[in-house]
């Protein structure tokens, strides 16, 4: 039996393969440290062989992606001044090939297929964590928290956030029907429970904020483009003023207190200070990609000891911009930040201009979540991480022409009711 190429590489024909590939990729991102190199090879095996089927369709014209590869290219250059050039070179290669896989997925999958695969993948990841998860004691705040099958509750919280976000996208934007509604409901229940069990304030607050933002944009989508832009700008100004007023009245301490946190964010403010001091040592180009957290290096060893990291691996400054400044300096930070902002505002522009664009709505939601999390986590600058995969997937979609809404599943708008567009 001969299987047509379209079943693997055409977005309108490869729903089965694409859904399975995304789900398995998310499982690899979650647990590659548990299953080792064989899981990484399986991830590459899902995407790279598609190039052999039709390299022009699968790869496209990479001259249109030059701005996406800026940070990865600089990571390679940093090998020349890195104190651990072998580590920097290896991880730079891993990061680049990881980006290529994300861009292959971007060109071969529809938004609906990505959403279905993410709903299935997040569900499987969370089920595995609930079955084989453990509680960890945090010596910094003296509490126990459920971390699932991860080493950190923040990673469990991140997958729970993604589960809720893609469930929302599937029901409200893509328009799930029948069995997919059941699957979405199951993933939503698993995600909500995992989010509660992890007690990750970051994940809870960012998830609620992004879902409310998406709901607001969908309501604005019922207006004409000109009115949409005016109301969005007005809402943004009001939100900024309201946030500043809330902070001045002590809302931050109240929110942190509700989650059992203090103003130091469980030692993160001290960690940020240490990162800023480290960045000052080489402000322009940094110490080298992945060249700071190296076993045997005095500063890394000191911070591992102070934060009770017995494994001496998997630690970071809990801020994307500080971490990037330390490793790649101002140049790398600007390159990575520009990619994130171009992707975010590019999809926002399409949302405010186009009549209906479910693709940009989902991509904007992904990038908005990553942007908010970037101030307290590092989801987009490491290989084999779900955050970096979705980051480059969403950014790469800007290089494709917007898909007509009629060619995609119709979104479900619960309110306001469907009616004539307001002119």
Structural overview:
This protein is an all-alpha fold. The chain has helices spanning 6-9, 15-35, 37-47, 50-53, 55-59, 70-77, 85-108, 111-132, 153-174, 179-198, 201-220, 225-248, 251-258, 268-279, 298-306, 320-353, 358-373, 386-396; strands spanning 134-138, 143-148. A two-stranded antiparallel ribbon has the order 1-2. The chain is globular and about 55 Å long. The model is unreliable at 406-423 (pLDDT under 50).
What structural keywords apply?
globular; disordered C terminus; 18 helices; 423 residues; 65% helix; mainly alpha; 2 strands; two-stranded antiparallel sheet
Low-confidence stretches: 406-423
Oligomer: single chain
Number of strand elements: 2
Summing up helix and strand content along with how strands pair, one would put the structural category as mainly alpha
Helix and strand pattern: HHHHHHHHEEHHHHHHHHHH
Outline = globular
Distance between the termini: 54 Å
Helix content, binned percent: 55-70%
Largest sheet: 2 strands, antiparallel
Give the C-alpha Rg.
Answer: 21 Å
